[in-house]
Amino acid sequence: MTQAEIKLCSLLLQEHFGEIVEKIGTYLIRTGTQPLRMIVNDTGLLLDQVKKALCVLIQHNLVTYQLQKRGFVEYEAQCKRVLRILRYPRYIYSAKTLYNDTGELIVEELLLNGKMTMSAVVRKVADRLTETMEDGKTMDYTDVSNTFVRLADTHFVQRCPLIPETPETPDAPPPPAPMLVINEKDMYVVPRLNLIGKGKRRRSCDEEENGEHKAKKQKQDGESSEPPPDDGIYWQVNIDRFHQHFRDQGIVSAVANRMDQTSSEIVRTMLRMSEVTTSSSAPYTQPLSSNEIFRSLPAGYNIVKQVLDQYLSLLADDPLEFVGKSGDSGGGMYTVSILCGFGSRCARIFRLLLRKKHLEQKQVEDFAMIPAKEAKDMLYKMLSENFVSLQEIPKTPDHAPSRTFYLYTVNILSSARMLLHRCYKSVANLIERRQYETKENKRLLEKSQRVEAILASMQATGAEDAQLQEIEEMITVPERQQLENLKRNVNKIDASENQVDETIFVLESFIESTMKKP
């Protein structure tokens, strides 16, 4: 665990969960597995605070626990899972792209709450969607339930592990910590719920005052009602499935750039056919026959079977091996392969070393067609930054420079790790910059929020335009310009975070796939 990763985890925990949770999370990241007593002693927090913070972290899958043989429970932070908080906006946007606003809000609610029952998610999302609709229109629970089922069918959401049902023995004491289990077959099975109803809007202040007694009565009735039929069946976002989707998008884009749109559409179809049957960590998709691929192509894509076979052969023969041929049955069996700062001249040298593996400085100058002095400076610059390495091959045992070959080469795995480390540092710097911008303009932001609250209140009571304009003028023109600049800067920082995270995803995927190669 590098210092850059620890710092980024700390900033993410503080920004999303507050100081106490951040203190506990960072402590566990730095020290590793710890029991409750040590966490309380070393952090100086109250026992109740530590327990609540651990509950929050466990609820969001950021900390796991394990019962030791001696009977005590140890807690361990999941640093990689904390870093995934950075990718939450991308998960939510992907859900919106695939399943519209309903899918977006389902994924957002699950990410915000960590784990929820399906019935709770459906009601909350229906209420939120109803709030955005015109007066008189509501969102039906059935529509939200259908989208939830589609998300589960495509494995974007999954069930959480449960406490197994065991016969109760009154004499035996309960275990210090529950053991959670899940049957792999049941991970995506949606319970049959008869959710009948529509989303509700928030009531205005007057309605709340008039209906206060009624609301209390409803609350009492609700407390005495039976638990929902899916009580105890909790769901969470399947992050690995989203990563599989991002990886598939990258593969399709790479095929389109290297070949053409038809090739990319064929690969997209193959990935879509095997998205549920192929593990997110598998190096290849499940084998698919040419006949199956042909039947699954989009309806508007009018290509004959013979042309499809030609495209598949072309993809299989390509040196980058996007598609591999694994058999001849069914017209041919094919799989999709998943393993796949210095200026343009340095990039040219880097690509050259990747292709040629080992080159002397003179060879680099000749192949890259770069003057000797410039090539030497660029090689030394990349060497000092660990992008390239220098290998000595002596002709004689004395290692005399005049009788030694000096070959430049690229350790691609080491370069990827170094770039990943730099990306983590960049995101941490962006978060700190956003916090600084917000802190520097804190007074102005608070004033703007107060004015907006007053305006909303007056609009609700039917105030005249002149009165509203008078309130708006409480914020001067220079202050408005300052607010616009702040908004523009924060938006740039947010966009930069998302762009860096895309690079982080590519680097992490490459490192993980490279480490899995035999």
UniProtKB/TrEMBL annotation:
Gene encoding it?
A: Polr3c
Family to which this protein belongs: Belongs to the eukaryotic RPC3/POLR3C RNA polymerase subunit family.
Limits of the RNA polymerase III subunit RPC82-related helix-turn-helix domain = 7-65
Q: What does this protein do?
A: DNA-dependent RNA polymerase catalyzes the transcription of DNA into RNA using the four ribonucleoside triphosphates as substrates. Specific core component of RNA polymerase III which synthesizes small RNAs, such as 5S rRNA and tRNAs.
* Key words of the record: DNA-directed RNA polymerase, Nucleus, Transcription
> One of this protein's GO BP terms?
DNA-templated transcription
Record's subunit section:
Component of the RNA polymerase III (Pol III) complex consisting of 17 subunits.
Q: Where is this region: Disordered?
A: 199-233
Establish whether keyword Transcription is in the entry.
Answer: yes
Q: Which GO cellular component terms are attached? A: RNA polymerase III complex
List the Gene3D superfamilies: 6.10.140.1450, Winged helix-like DNA-binding domain superfamily/Winged helix DNA-binding domain (1.10.10.10)
GO MF, one annotated term: single-stranded DNA binding
Q: What's the protein called, per UniProt?
A: DNA-directed RNA polymerase III subunit RPC3
State the compartments where it is located. Answer: Nucleus
DNA-directed RNA polymerase III subunit RPC3 winged-helix domain ranges (all copies): 342-410
Indicate the segments forming the RNA polymerase III Rpc82 C -terminal domain, all copies.
146-336
Query: Which Pfam families does UniProt cross-reference here?
Result: HTH_9, RNA_pol_Rpc82, RPC3_helical, WHD_POLR3C
